[in-house]
Design a protein that fits this description.
binds zinc ion, two-stranded antiparallel sheet, Muramoyl-pentapeptide Carboxypeptidase, domain 2, about 15% strand, single chain, disordered N terminus, alpha/beta, about 230 residues, 6 helices, about 30% helix
Length: about 230
């Protein structure tokens, strides 16, 4: 993998993502309307979830923290299942991904979160040590203990779905991940600048990149696009 697919490949990635689910478990997790053409991107209800899909158990791929808070839009379910399958293939020795809150069945306010109301936000765990996840719940990961390779592969897998608008993570963790991608040759400096914008900026108009957010030392927050517009 010499370079990462960013917005230029977004449209190209959409079609296969919709037409070719990656495994039988994904078929089950997929909602009815996935074969509909893309109508809108970036237009979603913000305060509720309609037509939500519950992330189905797949313990070899991911662990669901609270199933009744693991409802998301179809795009979110696809992102999580595809990224988890990719990780299982790339790093079979690593722990399954821990999936925290997405949304409740019909969305709306979710205790402890500003967002997570519309099925487009999910919290997922960070790898520490060598491919380990804190399985009992999220815990702070010091930059020194961050599994750089595993977390980078997870971020890459998420971005490659073409359905991720942004990922939020603490700046100290972003900094070591960014350095890793450059030093390991995973990304060129230019690519790394696009994936991990400098500093504390919150230019959320830039899609598919990793941004700083406070209180994200123990998990990453993933926001997906809305492509069905319903
Ligand atoms: Zn979150």
């Amino acid at each position: 993998m010499s370079s990462i697919s960013l917005m230029g490949a977004f449209a190209l990635q959409m079609a296969p993502a919709i037409a070719q689910p990656m495994g039988p478990w994904l078929d089950e997790a997929m909602p009815m309307n996935v074969e509909e053409p893309v109508r809108k991107i970036g237009v979603c209800p913000k305060t509720y979830l309609a037509g939500g899909v519950q992330l189905q158990p797949a313990p070899e791929l991911y662990w669901i923290w609270q199933p009744d808070q693991a409802w998301g839009r179809p795009e979110m379910i696809e992102v999580l299942t595809r990224a988890a399958e990719e990780m299982a293939w790339l790093m079979p020795e690593a722990d399954p991904i821990v999936v925290g809150d997405i949304s409740t069945r019909y969305g709306g306010f979710l205790e402890g979160h500003k967002s997570h109301r519309a099925g487009v936000d999910a919290d997922i765990g960070l790898y520490w040590g060598e491919g380990r996840m804190h399985l009992g719940g999220f815990r702070d990961v010091h930059p020194k203990n961050l599994d750089l390779e595993a977390n980078w592969l997870l971020i890459r897998s998420l971005l490659e779905t073409g359905l991720v608008e942004r990922i939020l993570l603490d700046q100290r963790l972003i900094r070591v991940l960014k350095r890793y991608t450059i030093e390991s040759g995973e990304l060129t400096v230019e690519e790394a600048e696009r994936v991990f914008p400098i500093g504390y900026n919150r230019m959320w108009t830039h899609p598919a990149v990793v941004h700083h957010a406070p209180s994200h030392k123990e998990h990453m927050h993933v926001r997906t696009f809305c492509w069905a517009g319903t």
